[in-house]
Design brief:
The structure is a homodimer.
Chain A lengths: L13 H8 L3 H9 L6 H14 L5 H7 L5 E6 L3 H6 L2 H13 L5 E6 L3 H13 L5 E4 L8 H8 L3 E4 L10 E2 L4 H14 L5 E5 L5 H16 L6 E4 L4 H12 L7 E4 L2 H13 L9 E5 L13 E4 L2 H15 L14 E3 L10
Helix pairs in contact in A: 1-2, 1-3, 2-3, 6-13, 7-8, 9-10, 11-12
Chain lengths: 347, 347
């Protein structure tokens, strides 16, 4: 970014366009904004005239007319290949878009490699007036983003379990841990003693939270985790983790995966190793993706209502951006959906 | 959109911010843009001073400094729930983001309900200077978008098979039909005579193209389609179509699906009906999603290189927006990836 160097060259004015097209300046605005009741032939004539004269409503003029960009940012700190691998994000985006699309809002998606890049991006988006607000993902311990965004004056919401002390409102299901307890109780109740957890990256807050609850819940049943393996959410790492858990004589009899796509890979890897699901191995996912309901066996999973959370985050952010939208109160906690991929522990 | 009404109120200037923070105006710019070699303490002091004085580099000032928004639009004409159901889009977005993210570009995602809304959106984005270019999806017969975008002066690329006569450059694999021919030859070679096709919505250009090739290829083998069923790409419609194809005495022995997630649902529905894959039913998908490689049986599919096409479209558009990016030439055609879900027709 450099300071302005001199004035821009002579540009045609909206009045000149209006005169050349034989309409009012208001009609020129309407033609570009697709509002008003212009006949299509009139609209086309105005647009053609504007193009001929080299006139367009510039961003600066538009900015004077309205400070609203009708754009919300979603910044994701993930390698690009994980975006494709983890359907969690398309579920989230679907939930957000469900609220944005009917209101004519767009979602500005940015992928960043690290914290520094993410923070620099928020500064640029604010400096250039690109967005009205931001949805933050992946709550982290000692998260510097809420303070930064408050300083920049950008409305924001953070996806994560509600926390009244947080400086940026959080949107997520309460009692995230409760579902993991429910999973452990379900598996222990089925007689499983060797229960493993294929988790996400170690530095994510929800990975730590769930991992802690997993251990505590097993402890209450007098058990220890068979293993907790961290992955980068990719299919390859899910398959490798599954093989590691099954490649011994006293193999795991139940595996809990941090998302459904890893669980589906796990089912494939186990069946390839000659194991039946659920007779020889019980499998639990997280996310309740539509696909899981249709596989054979149908996937037992934790419904985290990712789409609903995305929608609630979008609604809260829209309200904070001045839109007339009622907030959704998410009272529900994640719940275990028992289907066919879990069963009694093998004898 | 209304015309500007009066001048904005007195605002602090960048010079005043620079003076109050004890730095140059260039340093103020750098602090907001996160460029240059400012110490973090200096940067913070500048940002805090700017917030105190109520100064921010406005969108209008930013527009004067640079016409670049570093934002490309992707407008998708789909119900929001299909975005989540069809991993095709997360693959596409992943491919685009792979090129955008390293260059600091964002992707502005808009979901629209219909053609009129899509066209109005392009006009607004251009009018307000929100994007540098647009990636168009779902080439349609008599597509009015290329002419509109040319008139608006917005750089664009259209995802679809290359066509030299098109007014907007198209990015896609050549010989889309060749892979469908290959699928049919593969299945006929395995002895299948009752081959069905579970297609996408009838009004999409690629649905028609593939459907035509499917029929022609079967005709060359002296066969007719067992059935061609159209769906809205959702899991539910894939399961319903599969059941319809299997619920008769002379059921289909091979089903080709328009995408992998529908094929995976089809495998589940078939196994639930007591059929073995591929002994009783052969299944072919489209897209070559990562998950398909890890299921059991591994999915035979058509690799359409969705990520690569997305990346190539992004590169071409970046080049048209003035970025120094070499175009990728996509020479490859879609290819059949034979895995485990296809086998000899049942006797």
């Amino acid at each position: 970014m450099s300071a302005p160097t001199g004035k821009p060259g002579r540009r045609p004015t909206i009045k000149e366009v209006a005169a050349a097209a034989g309409v009012s300046t208001a009609a020129v605005s309407q033609a570009f904004n697709d509002k008003g009741r212009l006949a299509e032939t009139t609209r086309r004539r105005i647009l053609d005239t504007a193009v001929e004269l080299g006139w367009s409503p510039s961003a600066s003029a538009a900015a004077l007319r309205s400070a609203r960009t009708r754009t919300l940012a979603l910044v994701v700190r993930r390698p690009t290949d994980v975006l494709g691998a983890d359907p969690h994000f398309s579920e989230l985006i679907t939930g957000i878009e469900g609220e944005l699309a009917p209101r004519g809002y767009g979602l500005l998606l940015h992928l960043v490699a690290g914290a520094q890049e993410e923070n620099a991006l928020y500064k640029r988006l604010v400096a250039e007036g690109r967005v009205d607000g931001a949805v933050l993902t992946d709550a982290r311990a000692d998260d510097p983003r809420p303070a930064l965004l408050a300083r920049l004056g950008l409305p924001a919401v953070l996806l994560g379990p509600p926390d009244r002390s947080a400086s940026v409102p959080r949107v997520g299901l309460r009692h995230q841990g409760a579902a993991v307890e429910e999973v452990v109780r379900h598996l222990v109740g089925l007689g499983h003693r060797r229960i493993a957890y294929v988790a996400g990256p170690a530095d994510l807050q929800h990975t730590r939270l769930r991992g802690g609850v997993f251990e505590t819940a097993l402890k209450e049943a007098g058990l220890r985790p068979y293993a907790v393996l961290h992955t980068d959410f990719t299919e390859v790492s899910a398959v490798a983790a599954t093989r590691a858990l099954l490649d011994t004589a006293d193999r795991a009899t139940a595996i809990v995966y941090a998302n459904d796509s890893m669980a589906m890979c796990g089912v494939g890897a186990a069946r390839r190793a000659g194991l039946r699901i659920p007779e020889d191995l019980s499998v639990v996912g997280h996310d309740n993706l539509p696909l899981g309901r249709w596989l054979h066996p149908r996937l037992t999973t934790v419904d985290q209502q990712v789409q609903r959370v995305g929608a609630a985050a979008a609604r809260l952010l829209l309200a904070r951006c001045g839109e007339d939208v009622e907030e959704t109160v998410l009272e529900d906690r994640p719940r275990l959906v028992v289907r066919e991929s879990t069963g009694p522990a093998p004898a």
